[in-house]
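Reviewers of the previous submission asked for a worked example of the structure-prediction workflow described in the proposal, so we include one complete record here. The input consisted solely of the amino acid sequence. No template or homolog information was supplied to the procedure at any stage.
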Amino acid sequence: MYLILGTFLLCDIIDIIVKPFLTNLDLSKKTRYNQDKSPVARPSHRQSMPFAFDTDNPWSRCLSAFLTASFDRSHSSETLRIYQRALYRFFSEPAKMPEDYTREDVSTFIHRPSPGGKAPAVSTVNQRLSALRSFYTYASTYTIEGSDGHPVAILRHPAPTSGFRHGRPDRVYRAMSYEEFSQFFSVIPKDTPLGLRDRSLFLLYFWTARRRAEIQRLCWGDIEQGTIIDEGGRRRVGWLYHFRNKGSSTQDDVAELPEAAKVALDKYLVASGRMDTIQAGDPLFVAEGSDTPLSFVAIFKAMKKYLKAAGLDGRGFSIHSWRHTAARARYAAGEDIRSLQRLLRHSNLGTTDLYLRTLAGTANSGAKLLEDKFNQFS
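From that input alone, the workflow returned the following structure tokens.
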């Protein structure tokens, strides 16, 4: 167990996320980030919102209040962006007043295929449904002034999302074995800035066991030297990194950055020529030849590229596989479950236990009782 001494950071992005929604922010462009890691708003090329209600309509005020309340509750810019995109599309395809949408409209929207005709994944359907359900739940308690001057509910009939349930996506928990791990890194160049970037990135995922966004959004200013107190109460100086943990995005979390991860990061920054000029607000990992933060898609494509080059079957592997790989390797090396619970930031020990059992497999202890009698048939 490590107790990390660090500081807290706050990030206010309401003006960046909520207000642009009501002024036609075009989200189709690649996202760039400010120094505080909030998305930079881009000007829109749309002349008007294709909604059935304008910005002076009570439904527009309800929508604005919902987005603000959503961020106040979660402090997650990613969740807010997902809600924003889903609601924009739902209220414009087709354009109706929110109280006029039907269950059929909701079902059509959440199951709408991609432009190429591919059916949406269960996770995509769930995201769309969550956005709509959250909005209509909020709208069901939102009141406006009635014709007689008294408050009246803006939504006066059952929400069109009533009765829908989230689907259960098929989850494939696949971690890398040591042999697969070795094969993967054997094909990543050690003598190019791009190769060193990718080695550093994937090693950071492995050594920290952090989630996808928790590493992708790291900036240079998130890394610092500090005091670490181990289980025996001994103090030492080490490297720390600050991140926003899933489910606790309102506060800064701090953890030790293993020396091996810091060494790999320094090699990349030196080779890329960024070490001498990098600023606190600069992202750690950027696209080749630019200062644009490396996107989730670019990270995933790089991982798939190296899996293929290493001759590994990429099915079941994702960026999240590094978290599983880290947990399994630590567990196999003898780290106890409570230490892993703290590392993974699981609030419930049962979650960690389930997490490890899906990776390590379940023992068939009953088979031992049958060996003497049934071994003869093998």
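The beta strands are 3-4, 143-145, 151-153, 223-229, 235-243, 253-256. We consider this example representative of the routine output the project will generate in years two and three.
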